[in-house]
Hints:
Blueprint: H1 8-16, E1 20-21, E2 23-28, E3 34-39, E4 42-46, E5 51-54, H2 63-69, E6 71-76, H3 82-89, E7 102-103, E8 109-110, E9 116-128, E10 131-143, E11 148-152, E12 155-159
Amino acid sequence: MTTTVIDTAEFRKAMAEFPSGVTVVTALDEQGGLVGFTASAFSSLSLDPPLVLVCPALTSATYPHLVRGGRFAIHILASDQKDLAMAFASKGMDKVAALEWTLSDLGNPLLKGASCVLECSLWREYEGGDHAILVGEVLRIDRCESGVLLYHRWQMSNHAVPEVEIASA
């Protein structure tokens, strides 16, 4: 098998060509405080059972809390939540100290205003290079009809709710 060396910067540029939604993944730390990170590496995985995957960096300060706690919430950000995405994308322990949140009945920290929130229990964990692949079983869904925040070529932009919905196949 031939191994080709791919330039990391070029790979990053190639991945930036794929537009994706913006999510914030939240969990609780050992003291019951809010922790989280911004993720575009998120996808649906299975309908039966309902599974999604999210991929935190192994160096993420939130990653150990997701695994230890065994539960988390994935917030699909609304079109007006760029500031929230940027807060969770920053480094440091105090990055979200001033943010308001509530605790759900399932024990997940929830942020207000997201287009959709998926509350999950950790179903499986896999290795994925410098990231972990966490599969969450969706236990609760909370949706609202709002536009979403998109990420493309290192820029975040609003994506409004379509005027006409496309019929499902």
